[in-house]
Design goal:
Elements (H helix, E strand, L loop, with lengths): L8 H10 L9 E6 L6 H12 L2 E6 L2 H11 L7 E5 L1 H9 L3 E2 L4 H6 L12 E13 L22 E2 L6 H14 L1 H13 L9 H10 L4 E5 H9 L12 E4 L9 E10 L5 H11 L2 H9 L4 E2 L8 H4 L11 H5 L2 H11 L3
Parallel strand pairs: 1-2, 1-3, 6-7
Antiparallel strand pairs: 3-9, 4-9, 5-7, 5-8, 5-9, 5-10
The structure holds fe (iii) ion.
Amino acid sequence: MSVKHALTASTAAAILAATVLPAFAEGELNLYSSRHYDTDERLYTDFEEMTGITINRIEGNADELIARMTAEGANSPADILLTVDTSRLERAKQAGILQSIDSDILERRIPGYLQDDDNQWFGFSQRARILFYDKEDVENPPMTYAALADPQYEGQICIRSGSNVYSQTILAAIIAHEGEDAARDWARAVVANFARDPQGGDTDQLRGIVSGECDISMSNTYYFSRAIRRDVEGVSDSLDMFGWTFPDQGGNGAHMNLSGGGVAAHAPNRENAIKFLEYLAGDQAQQYFSAGNDEYPAVPGVGLSPSVAALGFFKPDDIDLSKVAQNVSTAQQIFNEVGWE
Ligand code: FE
């Protein structure tokens, strides 16, 4: 590992601007990543040992990495962008900082619904966005996303901001399934059921259940699995009070989102970049990649880590995420219209 920068959001911009990587160097790969998990070290060192390719890493806040690649343009040394969320991968595509690639391995290993239609991005692990609730206070927990709009849950629901990418992607999926008007009606009714103004991240929604401020919260699965695996303040001590539902099990299935990435538009080391993505689709790498953030592997048949398996089996929504991504700007518009701030 010749370059590594672990960044906090506040210092990221300044350090990013000052970091210079060689554009092309045989046997190198320049990785722009917003991931920073301990198991990723194994992921990178295994690849380096297998291929002799050295990974130069730039780690930072996802939106800042996208901004940096955009600003660098054709001079960008970036070979790969790794980030989270379908909305953000789509934003990277729209910004023109990714390129289409042909890979039989990726086509064979990564299910079609977890890939961009133009092969500009690929999902390498999945997270479900599901409902958690206070078992004592909620007798009839919502079993569908649609149920969150039911007046019986007035004043009970905590969920994060409409400006957040996870919110945008799930509403984009609802638009894809139900249409724009139904999605708007749903969003408006959910706002009417808020326990509080949207605030904080997904862990804060879980903490809200523990503190009693929220009865029902929406969160990505890995935040809860993380609290099972290790101590998460304000959650891990109270795991017993949580119930959860994987929504829409009789219908479309639970909404899935992605960690993923693609090859940079101007990748100086393009062949190495494709090799790296193909490596990420291998069984061992899939295990490291998903376990690092308590996620579900993208490749079918790869084992789950214990904290992930603890949530149980469920039916995922296998709608094409490339189609979902096309609704993201409409989703943002709806959030603004209904006051989901
Ligand atoms: Fe997250």
